Structures are given as C-alpha cells and as structure tokens.
C-alpha cells in the first residue's frame, strides 16, 4: 500500500484517525505522519491559546456589563430616593 500524501510505496503506512481522513487521504507513511502530528500539535497549541484569550475577553466583558447593570440600578434607586 502507498502513502496517500507522498505516494511512497513499500514503506509502512498507518491509517489516519477517521476524523482526519478525507476521501483522498486515509493512509500515510511514518514520515508524513510525523509532519502531520507536528502540525496537529502546533494547531492545538494555537487553538488552546485562542480559547483562553477569548474566554478572558468574555469574562472581562461580562464583568463590565454586570458592573454597568449594578451602577444603573444604583442610579435608579438614588433618583427614586431623591424624588421622595
């Protein structure tokens, strides 16, 4: 069987996980698998950093909106108290 990426034949090939397979690429040689695994690791690191950054932004925005809502409630209460 030949590698579906580099077309080398006569070398051991391994099946990609189903999630990573495409119609044209299912089996890869050890060399191509090594390159794929390195790229996958790099992408996972990038995604995890982006996820952490997005979550931090979400928490900051949520905190700000909660503080604004609290301040608006306090302002309404103060205005109501002044009208009495």
Walk me through the structure.
There is one protein chain. By secondary structure, this protein is mainly α. It has one domain. Helices cover 64% and strands 7% of the residues. The chain has one helix and two strands; from the N terminus they run ββα. It has one helix spanning 30-83; strands at residues 13-15, 27-29. Strands 1-2 form a two-stranded antiparallel sheet. The mean pLDDT is 95.
* SSE ordering: EEH
The stretches of 5 or more residues where confidence is low (pLDDT under 50) are: none
Helix content: 55-70%
Whole-angstrom Rg: 27 Å
Strand order of the largest sheet: 1-2
Instruction: Count the domains.
Output: 1
Separate helix tally:
1
Measure the end-to-end span.
Answer: 87 Å
Structural class: mainly alpha
Instruction: Write down the overall mean pLDDT.
Output: 95
Compute the number of strand runs. Answer: 2
The shape, in one word, is rod-shaped
Beta-strand share of residues: 5-15%
Largest sheet: 2 strands, antiparallel
């Amino acid at each position: 069987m030949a590698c579906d990426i580099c077309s080398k034949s006569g070398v051991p090939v391994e099946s990609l996980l189903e999630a990573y397979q495409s119609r044209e690429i299912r089996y890869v040689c050890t060399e191509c698998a090594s390159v794929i695994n390195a790229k996958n690791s790099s992408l996972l690191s990038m995604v995890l950093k982006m996820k952490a950054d997005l979550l931090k932004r979400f928490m900051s925005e949520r905190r700000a909106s909660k503080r604004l809502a609290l301040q608006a409630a306090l302002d309404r209460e103060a205005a109501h108290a002044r009208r009495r």
